[in-house]
Amino acid sequence: MGFHTCPYPHRKESRFPATSSGDVLLAFTNGHSYTMPDMIIHYVADHGWLPPVEFVEDVMTGTLAIQGGARAQTRSVSIGAIYAGTRIGYLDGPFETGPVPEDFVDRLEELMRLATEGGERAQTKSPPGFRGDFE
Questions:
Q1: CA angle at residue 2 from 72 to 35, to 5 degrees?
Q2: 8 Å CB contact between 7 and 1
Q3: Cα angle 82-105-33, degrees, rounded to a multiple of 5
Q4: pTM, full prediction
Q5: Helices 104-117 and 40-47 sit at what angle, rounded to 10 degrees?
């Protein structure tokens, strides 16, 4: 996705950053895989976005199948494998809202951290002059 700023209005008490420069692959042992922007947890936690039921079920009950490999940088490494999953959370325009399970955001954040540590995250270069922390 590259550098991205959330286009939706924000409350001052947003839990997660409204900017991102990376994409993560969550591949589960059941064969399901999803490519998503880092900001997916912002959309769920701070805007009430309701992901598809299958994704919610995989996050809540699934086990990651980390493919392994070095952390990818779009400037120098082929990152095709990270973008092999079903695209999810790349929001544009209106979206469905609704409740997710109580621990969904914490579980998603943990899975994204594990995927990042396993090399399943692509970080793109920030625009010139931008100073921000996306880790």
A1: 65
A2: no
A3: 25
A4: 0.80
A5: 170
